[in-house]
Amino acid sequence: MTAENNTGAPFSPIENQVMTALEKVIDPELGLDLVNLGLIYDVEVDPKGSCTVTMTLTTMGCPLTDYLNNDINRAILSVDGVKECKINLTFEPPWNVDMVSRYAKIALGIHG
Description:
Elements: H1 13-22, E1 26-27, E2 32-33, E3 40-45, E4 50-55, H2 65-77, E5 84-89, H3 102-108
Parallel strand pairs: 4-5
Antiparallel strand pairs: 1-2, 3-4
């Protein structure tokens, strides 16, 4: 799976593995993973194994930021070849329900 909001080059195999790992990170409030919620904007893994994830949150000041950061780091560092994880948190563009995957919309009961 690739991030729908990724504006860079196509993902490498290791970046796709990172995206797959991030599908296991569940937002505890919504009960869905960060990828399907559209919160992951981009993933870059350099040749030295440093991974940078550009992402957002559903709201500024989310009380679960530390919890999510820990789960994100754990998931990303579980990918063979990734040695370091950096999280680039952004609120541009702001997250909205249009960024949610079809699967997540069905799970959340969003129609339209």
